[in-house]
């Protein structure tokens, strides 16, 4: 997470606001130290148990729908199929937009 936040800070000007879920990885000491060094980075957290606000839920729903009824021969085949599915979503702005629009988030 720290590497991702540093990447954002290098490439974005002004205040950087990041919306996150409440996973422990987003609140540890390394994150707090990074926030102390970079006052223009602001983390905002979704309320607990609020999947209707989290675009990630759309990503996983899309992936599950595309993987449903498949029967990989082994764990490697499952991994390859999952990777291909997520890679396809990563490069499809229409599908990604749908993940955001399905939430109850205000779009400014």
Concise account of the structure shown:
With 108 residues, the protein is mainly alpha-helical. The protein contains five helices and two strands; from the N terminus they run H-E-H-E-H-H-H. The protein has a two-stranded parallel sheet with strand order 1-2.
The DSSP helix count reads 5
Order of helices and strands: HEHEHHH
The mean pLDDT is 90
Distance between the termini: 25 Å
Q: What structural category arises from helix and sheet content?
A: mainly alpha
Radius of gyration: 17 Å
- Estimated share of beta-strand residues: 5-15%
What best-fitting shape do the alpha-carbon axes yield?
Answer: globular
Spans of at least 5 consecutive residues with low confidence: none
User: How many discrete domains?
Assistant: 2
Task: State the helicity in percent bands.
Answer: 40-55%
Overall strand count:
2
Q: Taking strands numbered 1, 2, ... along the chain, how are they ordered across the largest sheet? A: 1-2
Question: What is the makeup of the main sheet?
Answer: 2 strands, parallel
Architecture blueprint of SSEs:
Blueprint: H1 2-11, E1 16-20, H2 29-37, E2 41-45, H3 55-67, H4 75-90, H5 93-101
Helix pairs in contact: 3-4, 3-5
């Amino acid at each position: 997470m720290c590497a991702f936040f540093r990447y954002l800070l290098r490439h974005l000007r002004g205040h950087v606001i990041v919306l996150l879920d409440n996973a422990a990885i987003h609140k540890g000491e390394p994150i707090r130290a990074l926030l102390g060094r970079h006052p223009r980075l602001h983390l905002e957290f979704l309320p607990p148990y609020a999947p209707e606000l989290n675009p990630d839920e759309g990503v996983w729903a899309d992936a599950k729908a595309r993987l449903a009824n498949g029967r990989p021969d082994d764990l490697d085949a499952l991994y390859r199929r999952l990777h291909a599915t997520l890679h396809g979503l990563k490069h499809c702005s229409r599908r990604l937009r749908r993940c955001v629009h399905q939430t109850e988030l205000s779009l400014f």
